[in-house]
Design brief:
- This protein is α+β, with helices and mostly antiparallel strands.
- It has 4 domains: about 190 residues, Ribonuclease H-like superfamily/Ribonuclease H (Nucleotidyltransferase, domain 5, 2-Layer Sandwich); about 140 residues, Taq DNA Polymerase, Chain T, domain 4 (Up-down Bundle), CATH 1.20.1060; about 180 residues, Alpha-Beta Plaits; about 110 residues, no CATH class.
- The chain is built from 23 helices and 23 strands.
- The strands form 8 sheets. Strands 3-2-1-4-5 form a 5-stranded mixed sheet, with helices on both faces. Strands 11-12-6-15 form a 4-stranded antiparallel sheet. Strands 21-22-16-23 form a 4-stranded antiparallel sheet.
- Helix 4 runs antiparallel to helix 5.
- It is globular, with a radius of gyration of 28 Å.
C-alpha cells in the first residue's frame, strides 16, 4: 500500500458553487517531497493513481477535493466511487472525529476545532498554520489569480502554501495510526471506510442542493410577521412585554424597545406549576436553580398569556433562522454575506433559491447532522417544509424506513442477549405500536367497552380484557379515536423507553414528540406494561448497567455489527447508541448505494457483471435530503418512471440495511410529492402504480 496525499486549490466557494473550478493540485507520496501540478496535468496524474489499486488516497475533507475533480472531469467519477468501495480513501477529518468519539470527546471538541487542517495540526503537533491561511494577502483565497499561469511564474508563497497542504495530511495520518493502536481496547477506526463513503455521499447531496419556492417563502414570512405582530400587541397589553426608550444613533429619534418582563413570567410559571416548576441546575449564584422559561415550560403552565408567549417565541425563531435561510442567504466568515442568486425555473411561473445546507457525517451517536439550515429536523409547524420544491419536470420521492429504530433495537437484543420478543412480532408482520397498544388497553382499562363502526356501517364491540390485535388494528383503520390514542401512546413508549428514560423525562418526551399528556405515575405504569410486553427490555437494561464500571457513570459502547466505538457514554446514551448507531450505519450504507446508482448507474447491488450496459433505474435522479431514516430524491415527473424509481429505492434501502440487520425484516415505504410534506403517504392507482400524493383540501 502506498499513501498519496493530494489537495486541490480552486476558485472561491460561493453559493451555488460548492465544487468550484480547479486551479491546481498538490501531491505527496509516502516520504517523498510534495509536488505541484496545474489543473489538466493534475487530473491526468490523479487518473493514473485512481487506476493503480496499490495507491490509497489521504486528505483533509477529501470529499471536497474529489467533488472538485469529478466536476472538472466527470469521467473520473466511476473511478472515484471504485476507490471508495475498495477502502482506498482516508479522510483525516473523519478519522479524527472517530478517534475523539472513541474517547468520548467528540461533542466538546467539534465546535472548537471544526476539524480544519490547521485545527487538527494545532491539536496534534502544537504547530500554528493559521498565519498562512488568514489575512487579505493569504494565498488560500487567491488561487483564481493564478489560473492558467505557468508554474515558474508563481510566487514562492503560493507554492509553499499549496505544498504544505499535501505534506501535513500524511503526518496527521501517521499520528492517527499511532493513536489508533495505543490505548484503545477496540479499534476506533474499524468502521472508517463506511463513514468515509458516507461523507462523500453527503457532500454530493450538498453540492446538488435543494430549491425553495419564492412565493411560498414570502407567504410564510408575511404570515409569521402578522402573527408575531399580533402576539406582541397582546403581550404588551398583558404586561409580559415591557418597553424602554432607545435612541437611534443616526436619526436621534427616541423609540421603544420591547423586552420580556422575566420577573412577571417567572412568577406566573411558579403560580401555575408550583413545586413542579422546572429549574436549571443549581449554581453558586442560584443555589436552587433558576426558573426555566423555555417554550416547553411555558406551554406546560396552560396560562393564556404564556401560551401566546410560547407561540411568538417559536414564530420569531422561524423568522430569524429558517425564513432567512430559505431565501438562500448563508454567512461565510464573520463579515461577508453572500446572497444566493435567485434561480428562474424554466417553464414555470415561479422563482426560487438554491439552498446548499452543510452536512456533518458524524455526531457522537453515529448519526449525521445538517446546518445552515438544518434539513435533518426542519420545524413541523409553520409551513417550512412546504417551501422546498423539486426542480422543474420532477417530483419529490420520499422513502422512509418503518419504525427502523425498533428494528435495530430488536437486532441489538438478538446480538447481545440471544433473543427478542419484539423481533418475533415484527417477523410475524405485526405493527409493534398496535401490538403494544393492545397491552395498554388490556392493562389500563380492564372494564372498558370498546367499539367501532366499519365502512359498511356495522358496529363491532368487545371488552378491553378480551381485546385482540386484529380488533384494535381494524378499529384504528376505521378511525376509532380510542384505537388511535392507544397506538400513539404505544408509539411514544416503543421509541422512548429503549433509551432508558426515567418517568419525568419520558413525560416531557411524550408530550414534545407525540403530543401525549401523561403523568409520572402513568409513565411508571406504562413502563411496567412495556417491559412485560417486550421481555428483553429488562435484560437489556441490566446488561447496559453492568457495563458501567463500579463507582463510575460512563462507559464505552462498541456496536457488535459495525465496530463503531463511542466512549464516555452515560447510562441513557449507552442505551440509545446501540440501536441509534446501528440504524444510522444501515441508512448511511443505503445512502452510499443510492448515490452510486444516481451518479453512475451501478453499485454493489447493481453490477455490470449482472446487468451489462443496462443502468439502474435511479441513474440521473438525485438525493436532495437525507434525514435519519428518510431519503428524498428528485425523480422525473412521469408516473411510470417515478414508480420504478420508488421501487428501486425501497429495494436498495432494505437490502443495504439488511447487511447490518440480518435477523429482523425492515421495510421502506414510498410517497410522491409536489413539495416536501411530512404528511405524505403512499397513494396507489387502480393499476398498482404509485401516484402523486396530494393534501386534502
Amino acid at each position: 500500500m502506498r499513501l498519496l496525499s493530494f489537495d486541490t486549490e480552486t476558485f472561491l466557494i460561493a453559493p451555488g458553487r460548492q465544487a468550484p473550478p480547479m486551479v491546481c493540485a498538490s501531491f505527496a507520496l509516502d516520504a517523498a517531497e510534495p509536488w505541484l501540478r496545474l489543473r489538466d496535468d493534475a487530473l491526468d496524474e490523479l487518473e493514473a493513481h485512481l487506476r493503480d489499486e496499490s495507491v490509497h488516497f489521504v486528505g483533509q475533507n477529501i470529499a471536497f477535493d474529489f467533488g472538485v475533480v469529478a466536476a472538472e472531469r466527470p469521467a473520473l467519477l466511476p473511478l472515484i466511487f471504485d476507490a471508495y468501495d475498495a477502502d482506498r480513501v482516508h479522510d483525516i477529518r473523519v478519522r479524527d472525529m472517530m478517534l475523539l468519539n472513541a474517547r468520548g470527546e467528540l461533542q466538546e471538541e467539534a465546535g472548537r476545532l471544526a476539524f480544519t487542517l490547521e485545527g487538527i495540526v494545532q491539536r496534534r503537533f502544537g504547530v500554528d498554520l493559521s498565519a498562512d491561511k488568514k489575512g487579505p494577502d493569504a494565498w488560500r483565497l487567491r488561487y483564481s489569480e493564478l489560473d492558467d499561469v505557468p508554474l515558474e511564474q508563481w510566487p514562492d508563497e503560493a507554492v509553499r502554501y499549496v505544498l504544505d497542504d499535501a505534506r501535513w495530511p500524511l503526518r496527521v495520518y501517521e499520528d492517527q495510526v499511532r493513536e489508533r493502536w495505543g490505548g484503545f481496547q477496540n479499534d476506533p477506526l474499524y468502521d472508517e471506510p463506511g463513514q468515509t463513503r458516507a461523507a462523500f455521499a453527503l457532500h454530493l447531496i450538498a453540492c446538488w442542493g435543494i430549491l425553495t419556492d419564492e412565493t411560498a417563502v414570502l407567504a410564510l414570512e408575511t404570515r409569521l410577521l402578522e402573527t408575531v405582530g399580533t402576539a406582541r400587541e397582546l403581550l404588551i397589553k398583558s404586561g409580559i412585554l415591557k418597553g424602554k426608550g432607545k435612541k437611534n444613533k443616526d436619526s436621534g429619534v427616541i423609540g421603544v424597545e420591547w423586552a420580556k418582563d422575566t420577573s412577571k413570567i417567572k412568577a406566573l410559571i411558579e403560580a401555575a406549576l408550583g413545586v413542579a416548576t422546572p429549574r436549571t441546575d443549581p449554581s453558586a449564584t442560584f443555589p436552587d436553580g433558576q426558573v426555566k422559561m423555555d417554550e416547553e415550560t411555558l406551554r406546560a403552565t396552560g396560562h393564556p398569556d404564556l401560551l401566546v408567549l410560547a407561540d411568538v417565541m417559536g414564530d420569531e425563531k422561524l423568522l430569524t433562522t429558517y425564513v432567512q435561510a430559505l431565501k438562500g442567504r448563508i454567512k461565510r466568515g464573520n463579515t461577508k454575506e453572500y446572497d444566493q442568486r435567485g434561480l428562474y425555473l424554466p417553464g414555470e411561473d415561479r422563482r426560487g433559491w438554491l439552498i446548499q445546507s452543510v452536512p456533518n457525517v458524524l455526531v457522537a451517536s453515529g448519526r449525521t447532522s445538517w446546518s445552515r439550515p438544518n434539513l435533518q429536523n426542519p420545524p413541523r409547524k409553520g409551513g417550512v417544509r412546504e417551501c422546498f420544491v423539486p426542480r422543474p419536470g420532477h417530483w419529490f420521492l420520499s422513502v422512509d424506513y418503518s419504525f427502523i429504530e425498533l428494528v435495530t433495537w430488536a437486532q441489538t437484543c438478538i446480538d447481545l442477549l440471544g433473543y427478542s420478543k419484539l423481533a418475533d412480532a415484527i417477523k410475524a408482520g405485526l405493527d409493534p405500536h398496535v401490538d403494544m397498544g393492545v397491552e395498554i388497553l388490556r392493562a389500563e382499562h380492564p372494564a372498558r367497552w370498546l367499539e367501532y363502526t366499519d365502512k359498511a356501517g356495522a358496529l363491532h364491540g368487545i371488552e378491553s380484557t378480551e381485546v385482540t390485535y386484529a380488533f384494535v388494528n381494524a378499529a384504528r383503520k376505521a378511525g376509532a379515536t380510542w384505537a388511535k390514542d392507544a397506538r400513539q401512546l404505544a408509539k411514544a413508549a416503543n421509541f422512548g423507553l429503549p433509551g432508558g428514560l426515567g418517568a419525568a423525562t419520558f413525560c416531557a418526551y411524550a408530550k414534545a414528540t407525540y403530543g401525549v399528556d401523561i403523568s409520572e405515575d402513568e409513565s411508571r405504569n406504562l413502563k411496567t406494561i412495556w417491559r412485560n410486553k417486550w421481555a428483553e427490555a429488562q435484560d437489556y437494561f441490566n446488561l447496559v448497567s453492568a457495563m458501567l464500571p463500579f463507582g463510575q457513570d460512563r462507559t464505552a459502547v462498541v456496536l457488535p455489527r459495525t465496530g463503531f466505538v463511542r466512549g464516555g457514554c452515560m447510562y441513557t446514551a449507552a442505551c440509545n447508541t446501540y440501536f441509534q448507531g446501528l440504524a444510522a450505519r444501515g441508512a448511511k450504507e443505503a445512502m452510499w448505494v443510492l448515490t452510486q446508482e444516481c451518479y453512475t448507474g451501478y453499485s454493489s447491488l447493481w453490477t455490470r457483471k449482472e446487468h451489462g450496459e443496462v443502468r439502474a433505474p435511479l441513474y440521473g435522479c438525485r438525493i436532495v435530503v437525507f434525514a435519519h431514516d428518510e431519503f428524498i430524491l428528485e425523480v422525473p415527473a412521469h408516473r411510470q418512471q417515478a414508480h420504478i424509481a420508488a421501487a428501486r429505492v425501497g429495494i436498495v434501502m432494505e437490502q443495504a440495511m439488511a447487511r447490518f440487520v440480518p435477523d429482523v425484516p425492515n421495510r421502506a415505504e414510498p410517497a410522491l410529492m409536489a413539495c416536501w410534506q411530512k404528511e405524505a403517504e403512499p397513494v396507489w392507482g387502480a393499476d398498482g402504480v404509485l401516484e402523486l400524493w396530494r393534501p386534502k383540501a
